[in-house]
Amino acid sequence: MKQPDQDTPTEVGEVSFDGSTPLAREIQDLARRRQAIASTTLPLPSRTRIFTISNQKGGVGKTTTVVNLAAALAKSGARVLAIDLDPQGNASTALSVEHREGTPSVYDVIVNDKELEEVIQKSPEFDGLFVIPATIDLAGAEIELVSMVAREQRLSRALSRFLDEFDIDYVLIDCPPSLGLLTINAFVAATEVLIPIQCEYYALEGLSQLLKNIQLIERHLNPKLQVSTILLTMYDSRTNLAHQVAADVREHFPDEVLDTIIPRSVRISEAPSYGQSVISYDANSSGSLSYLEAAAEIARRGVPR
User: Has this prediction a pTM greater than 0.90?
Assistant: First the structure.
């Protein structure tokens, strides 16, 4: 019996299925991507990779990127430490760890000289995913740090001591959308910067200033720091503006921009309200697959030279 061609409409009962429709193509693409991810084993880095995820512009998917990349890397078998350095504590919420006022947190590390192992929590998301939470106490930390010796290096020194004792493949640091002492601590502690860029109007606004600030920190405080990764987020393929922004960013940063683009997705937005990453909330969604692909691309690129 002759089988129908994939692009030929077929009758199933009274329902017509056309393999050439946009919906059918989208379903086929998602299935292909799921299969490719399932059959991939990611390489682990030979030494710990420490990322600060930063953008002085708010609302670009910075915390969302920290949470979902951390979950995606942990799902792939890596040991991942997410450090929430934002007083709002949104990354702590999304990774379902305790961060009520008074909970041992990153505040105690950078202000009260506690060790990271004293405040670390295991996320229920995946084995191998650990979190240093942020509490509201962190809101006053910038003022308290002003008078401290080596105030820019508080996190870096604590993290170095921790990594001497514990085996971690990736550290992802979420920082507030401003260049204060908390963000500077994040830059000094990291070796790589990942910048999420929203595919909308004003996407590049403030980026040149951010890059200048990173260069200043590299020159005076952390010579190992470099912008290694740029991730395009909140991409809406239906708009010409999103295509244009993506093209502009790729033109300016051809080596840093990942091929993977994170789409604007309801599932990505919903997941934090359930205390989950989109990776565990809806593993088959386009948002989940995109973050898994971005994590795979970061892993394959390896430590930049």
Answer: no
